[in-house]
């Protein structure tokens, strides 16, 4: 029985990984469990490890990692703590393969520990372009990783240019789209009842800090909140992630938005409720990658604010603006007026909702030997 350890550190990435976990469960000869770390373990972000327990996925290890990520120094210290914790967890679990996703410190810590322990690392969503420290982290994980699950055709080409062997790279699409294709999402009326909304416009907003801009996090957040207040529509606002500057951002959100009865604040929404809200929103606003990866498949327009996702592939339903209230308001109004047809999503190249299935089958078939573990530049 091949053991697959799947690392999750945030609510968003957990939702994406459920597709992979479900597919692994159906493959004979494979079993998987989560290594839970990062924001999942913190009360201020909703103790989302409880969502994993509620969904009854196996938890093989818990790795406390984050203590103080309000500054870049705190993030660096947490990374070091994460590498130590992951090494201890993998020594206990003895997985055959470690699966990580994306471009945060939690998967980087796992990839660094596993590769040093000669455990193959499979990386989902490598080869993509954004900005901030995320760009460096993503590509660092690529060089640690032994198997690449690329979401887009362009990502495949970038991975090859980074010196990765072509046989290591697999175009699978994004497992984040799988739930949209395969799970029943709530309808508009149910969402309205859930949040106490009427039949007016609905905005979904998620704004995360940018590590390289943490000194102006307060200023940038003020522009976003000012825009939401001016729009004055029914809004579901979800707390930011734990990167440097989040405390300054959330102080402004709580100070300015809490008094507005139209804006509902949440530390976390479970995966299906989040996608259902996205599906029924008239527009999504912020800088979350889900606005680029999942929203187009739901035909939901997205106003992308700032630099966090700069360079990432996007559908025509995405409008990018600066941290300027007037630009955000204008773009949101335009998006809410525009009728979208079927949107071509670069993160859904096959259009079949089977990314998780492809990943599970490759994890089952890949040969674990010295050739897989021993990496060299391909040129």
Descriptive overview:
With about 375 residues, this protein is of the alpha/beta class. It has two domains: about 1-175 and about 350-375, Rossmann fold (3-Layer(aba) Sandwich); about 185-335, Glycogen Phosphorylase B (Rossmann fold, 3-Layer(aba) Sandwich). The protein has 15 helices and 13 strands. The strands form two sheets. Strands 3-2-1-4-5-6-7 form a seven-stranded parallel β-sheet, with helices on both faces. Helix 1 crosses helix 14 and helix 3 crosses helix 4 (about 105-115). The protein starts with a strand and ends in a 6-residue tail after the last helix. The mean pLDDT is about 95.
Tag the structure with descriptive keywords.
single chain, 379 residues, alpha/beta, Rossmann fold, 2 domains, 7-stranded parallel sheet, 15 helices, 13 strands
In short:
With 379 residues, the protein is of the alpha/beta class. Helices cover 42% and strands 16% of the residues. The strands form 2 sheets. A 7-stranded parallel sheet has the order 3-2-1-4-5-6-7, with helices on both faces. The protein has a 6-stranded parallel sheet with strand order 10-9-8-11-12-13, with helices on both faces.
